[in-house]
Design goal:
The protein is an all-alpha fold. The protein has helices at 15-30, 34-52, 60-69, 76-88, 92-95. The protein has one domain (15-95). It is built from 5 helices and no strands. Helix 1 (15-30) runs antiparallel to helix 2 and helix 2 packs across helix 3 (60-69).
Length: 96
Amino acid sequence: MCCDSRDVGIVKRSPTSEGVLAYLEAAELQERNPHFCADYRIASRIVLHSKKGDAVECSPHVLATYEVLGWHLDQVWTRIVNNRKAILRDEYSDWV
C-alpha cells in the first residue's frame, strides 16, 4: 500500500458524507498506484471542504488539489506534461 491514513480533522459529518469518506479512505488504503492514491485523497478533501464550506476564495476541488499536489488545478496537466518531457527528453515525441 502506498498511502497512509491522513487526519482529516474533526468535522460534523452527515451519514452521507461519512459513508463517502469511509469509502474513499478504504479505497486509498488499498490502492497501490500513488497517482490514484492522490486522486482518492483529493476526493476526500473535496467532500470535507464541501461539508465545512471553508473553500471561500475558490471551489472545493481547486483547494483540495492544491492541498494534495501543491499546484492549482489549472496547472496540473501542464506540470505533468513538462515533467514527462524532462524525464523522456528526446524520446518524448515517441510517446505522444
